[in-house]
Design brief:
The complex is a heterodimer of chains A (361) and B (513).
Chain A: E1 2-6, H1 12-36, H2 41-49, H3 51-54, H4 59-86, H5 93-111, H6 119-145, H7 149-169, H8 205-223, H9 225-235, H10 237-242, H11 247-271, H12 285-295, H13 300-324, H14 328-350, E2 351-355
Antiparallel strand pairs in A: 1-2
Helix pairs in contact in A: 1-2, 1-14, 2-13, 4-8, 4-9, 4-11, 4-12, 4-13, 5-6, 5-7, 5-11, 5-12, 6-7, 6-11, 8-9, 8-13, 12-13, 13-14
Chain B: E1 6-15, E2 18-28, E3 33-37, H1 44-51, E4 59-64, E5 67-68, H2 74-79, E6 82-85, H3 97-103, H4 111-124, H5 140-152, E7 158-162, H6 170-185, E8 189-194, H7 197-203, E9 206-211, E10 214-219, H8 226-234, E11 251-260, E12 270-278, E13 282-286, H9 293-301, E14 311-313, E15 316-317, H10 323-328, E16 331-334, H11 349-361, E17 364-365, E18 368-369, H12 371-384, H13 401-413, E19 419-423, H14 431-446, E20 450-454, H15 458-464, E21 467-472, E22 475-476, E23 480-481, H16 487-493, H17 505-512
Parallel strand pairs in B: 3-8, 3-9, 6-7, 7-8, 13-20, 13-21, 16-19, 19-20
Antiparallel strand pairs in B: 1-2, 1-4, 4-5, 9-10, 11-12, 11-14, 14-15, 17-18, 21-22, 21-23
């Protein structure tokens, strides 16, 4: 019989080693799945992990996509990770992302076609505020009426999606778009465009913001009392009360920060890679970021790596779909395996596996 | 001699990393009250769990009335006449007494019949209990009676009682002892687990003393002093803490008409609590568990707020302030629950040092933490209070209860507070560590700190307190000087027998006639 024995202190070695092992286990299990689907497993794995970066024909397009996709994932996941560490479960980052995009884009469109250096910063602020306000709804409802922020924030995603459709067809619709839904293309409006900063890298302001967020969150968690209080509240809520942490302030801070970052991510996407507010603008970054946050074990550096890895599997997965004809569901299953193996192997950092004989009567 | 009721030979049980029982042997005669004595962690609980069929021994033999006995589960033990009253009750508050008793039976009789039997047994043994009352409305002592009657309905030959008096007032203890003597007179043997020595001297016929899982002595408690037994239990000579003579200073803590609701749905609200405490004074607050001790600590530490004037530190109203503002004014606290309240289990000792000390020790610069200074402080606590740990980066949960308690108390004491509030400062701590903690509190008082010590251990309070009060259903009795107080008087302050005075009335009437 296998028994689990709790380690007195978490193992440093296993904490660092499990993500690597999880990736290897995913490759093995995923390879078996692809083989069962009648594809060459090695080729499939190579197409997902290697070709997006190094394939002579496709890498030129897909390499910049890595940062384009990873940027918003990392930015949103950093905000979520603070709340998750404190036991504040913001599941509605997707909604905050949409509202941030709408608010930011609206400010940009209001200035159209004026020029001015201040337009883009104003849009960023508006996007951040939009996400903040959307996150404050579950925050205030929880602190005032003790509602579940999980449900409220999740349900607000659908409200945000309905709003998105409404503004894309209504107030924000491009007057010169010939009646098609969707706003003007902000990427073609220089004062409002979130352009690629270094050509050919995919690096835009959203990616810069993501890197800054990683560093700031690292410093916050390691060196600042607010970061300490966040960790303390998640691990031992009564001890946090004893340490003088106000639960209300903490809930609002965590939701506020994650809302701001998600809102900014939405604006950067709307003004850059997507370019416009359209009905199909929302692409699920807000939900995927939850996986990224946990894959990176709520650690800023881990989230940075997890965001890149997740982006890679997305790009590689798309590549594998049209190169090898793999079904989309198999790619999603592959991504699911990654999270599954990570969480399963995570056990080893806090527990020790022991083979033991059954107790004899 | 007759065949012993229960004979244990060479019982051994090891858990990973610790041998709980090693080669334990003793015997219990029918009708004998046998004490099992030992400190926390000496192996008493494991031993009785083996007898009750909850844990299987690794080696050794047991025999019941000369027949080999190896229960695989508690129901087998019960069928052979072994019953047990646990320290922690397993009762449902929302059900009545009879329903709770029925839940523990394999084939419960119809409710009406059961209620009759409960009434009959409770009359017979002087444990009055109304089968129709909700358990949620009963006091701790009455709940214990439900557990005892549940056992008595099985007509046990051996009754195991695990620390039964920890939830009772001295008067309630007296009632319980009469019942136990009556049972023993009828031939039921009782295995009585405790570390309270005076109780054992009054009640028990024989005692087996365990230390680190081994039997270190057997004795007849009546022939030994409590001191002798304590030293057998601990394995070293104990010195009682020294109280330095002192002159109390100005009032440091004033509590006036403090009434707060409990944050816990099953908690006890504080009702108009008032006392004042001078610098250098130690106020001992006694009370049976669940009478508002936790709530009092929360209200004093600032985790629960109250009207400003209800709590005053050095004359400044602080009732509305949170824990850190009160710390800044000199009040620190050490809650009862070490893991999860006083300390975060998965955080290192350094991080736990920061938890409550950053205000008074100035570890923050514009919110940024000076970790080097925090680690120095954690090391100071570890050295000053002899905390046994490999280092400061060890998680709090890896420390033994006693060591963590020394760390938690040390962390508060080294902040040089003007008022310190501690709840159950030596709960679950070995005797040597407990003595060190009590001494540290007395030393702190000698330096002019006002100390509020909330405890359920009367001996501890009598050792350290200058004045004495008791919590009973959220009300605090007026403090009285500790000098000259008898245990009987303290028991009355704690609420007497909690409405159980009717017990044994017929016997007393018989005795006086």
């Amino acid at each position: 019989m296998i028994r689990l024995e709790k380690r007195p202190t978490p193992s440093r070695f296993w904490t660092a080693a499990t993500p690597v092992l999880a990736v290897i286990a995913t490759m093995v299990a995923g390879g078996l799945m692809f083989a069962a689907l009648g594809k060459d497993p090695l080729e499939a794995i190579r197409t997902i992990f290697w070709d997006p970066l190094f394939h002579p024909q496709f890498a030129g397009y897909s390499r910049p996509q890595l940062l384009v996709k990873a940027g918003p994932l990392i930015l949103i996941a950093i905000g979520l990770s603070l709340g998750f560490r404190a036991g504040v479960w913001n599941i509605g980052a997707e909604g905050q992302y949409i509202i941030g995009a709408i608010c930011g884009a609206a400010v940009g469109l209001a200035f159209y076609p004026a020029a001015g250096w201040y337009i883009f910063p104003l849009m960023v602020i508006a996007g951040a505020l939009g996400g903040f306000v959307w996150a404050m709804i579950p925050g205030i409802l929880r602190t005032r009426f003790n509602t579940s922020e999980i449900l409220v924030s999740l349900l607000l995603v659908y409200v945000a999606q309905a709003l998105l459709a409404s503004v894309a067809l209504g107030v924000l619709r491009n007057p010169q778009g010939g009646g098609f839904p969707g706003s003007r293309n902000l990427a073609q409006y220089p004062a409002a465009a979130n352009l690629e900063l270094i050509p050919g890298t995919g690096m835009h302001w959203g990616v810069v913001a993501a890197f800054i967020a990683v560093i700031a969150s690292f410093v916050l968690l390691q060196r600042h009392i607010l970061g300490f209080n966040i960790r303390l509240s998640g691990q031992a809520p009564r001890a946090a009360r004893f340490a003088g942490v106000s639960p209300t302030a903490l809930v609002l801070t965590c939701l506020g920060v994650s809302g701001v970052l998600a809102g900014m991510a939405g604006l950067f996407e709307a003004a850059g890679p997507s370019g416009k507010i359209s009905i199909d603008f929302a692409s699920g970054y807000g939900f995927t970021a939850i996986i990224v946050a946990f894959l990176g074990r709520l650690n800023p550096v881990g989230i940075l790596l997890a965001g890149l890895l997740m982006a890679l599997t997305y790009i590689g997965g798309e590549l594998a779909q049209f190169m090898l004809g793999l079904p989309k569901a198999s790619i999603q299953a592959f991504q699911g395996m990654l999270l599954f193996f990570l969480l399963a192997l995570d056990l080893t950092s806090n527990y020790r596996l022991r083979l033991a004989k059954r107790e004899v009567a | 001699m007759t065949v012993p009721l229960l004979k244990i030979e060479g019982l051994t049980k090891a858990y990973p990393g610790v041998v709980a029982n090693s080669d334990v042997s003793f015997a219990i005669q029918p009708g004998e009250v046998h004490a099992l004595l030992g400190e926390n962690g000496a192996g008493k609980s494991t031993l009785v769990k083996m007898i009750y069929g909850l844990v299987r021994p690794d080696a050794g033999r047991m025999a019941l009335r000369g027949v080999p006995y190896h229960p695989a589960k508690p129901s087998e033990a019960r069928n052979q006449g072994v019953a047990m009253v646990f320290q922690h009750f397993s009762l449902f508050e929302a059900l009545n007494v009879a329903e709770n008793v029925a839940l523990g039976m394999e084939n419960p009789p119809p409710m009406k019949q059961l209620a009759e039997r409960i009434r009959a047994v409770s009359q017979e043994y002087g444990l009055p209990l109304d089968p129709g009352r909700l358990v949620g409305d009963l006091s701790a002592g009455e709940r214990q009676r439900v557990e005892i009657i549940r056992c008595l309905l099985q007509d046990p030959k051996l009754l195991i009682m695990d620390e039964p008096t920890s939830v009772l007032t001295p008067q309630e203890v007296g009632i319980l002892f009469q019942t136990l003597r009556q049972l023993s007179g009828e031939g039921t043997a009782i295995l009585y687990i405790s570390h309270k020595l005076e109780e054992i001297r009054t009640l028990c016929d024989e005692a087996t003393i365990l230390r680190r899982g081994r039997v270190v002595a057997t004795c007849t408690p009546r022939d030994r002093t409590a001191r002798e037994m304590a030293e057998l239990m601990v394995g070293q000579v104990l010195t009682p803490p020294a109280k330095a003579p002192k002159t109390p200073g100005p009032v440091a803590l004033e509590v006036r008409d403090l009434s707060v609701a409990s944050p816990n749905p099953f908690g006890t609200a504080l009702k108009s609590v008032s006392f004042s405490l001078r610098r250098g004074e130690v106020l001992g607050i006694a009370g049976v568990a669940g009478n508002g001790q936790d709530e009092l600590l929360l209200a004093l530490s600032g985790e629960v707020t109250s009207p400003p004037q209800a709590v005053q530190i050095d004359g400044a109203p602080v009732g509305h302030l949170g824990p850190n503002a009160r710390r800044a004014l000199g009040l620190v606290a050490a809650p009862e629950e070490r893991l999860g309240h006083a300390a975060a289990p998965d955080m290192s000792l350094t991080e736990n040092a920061l938890l409550s000390a950053h205000v008074r020790k100035g570890f923050l610069r514009r919110g940024f933490i000076d970790w080097a200074a925090v680690e120095r402080f954690a090391k100071d606590v570890i050295t000053a209070f002899d905390v046994r740990t490999p280092g400061t980066d060890v998680a709090a949960r890896a420390l033994s209860g006693g060591n963590l308690q020394k760390f938690v108390i040390g962390r508060e004491i080294l902040q040089n507070p003007s008022v310190i509030v501690v709840n159950q400062p030596t709960w679950g701590v070995d005797a040597a560590a407990a003595a060190a903690i009590r001494q540290a509190l007395l030393d702190l008082a000698a330096k002019g700190t006002a100390v509020v010590a909330i405890s359920q251990d009367l001996d501890e309070l009598l050792e350290i307190a200058d004045s004495f009060a008791a919590l009973n259903e959220g009300r605090l009795t007026p403090p009285r000087p500790a000098q000259g107080l008898t245990v009987d008087q303290i028991g009355l302050m704690m609420g007497g027998a909690h409405g159980m005075d009717v017990a044994h009335r017929h016997e007393e009437a018989g005795a006086s006639a």
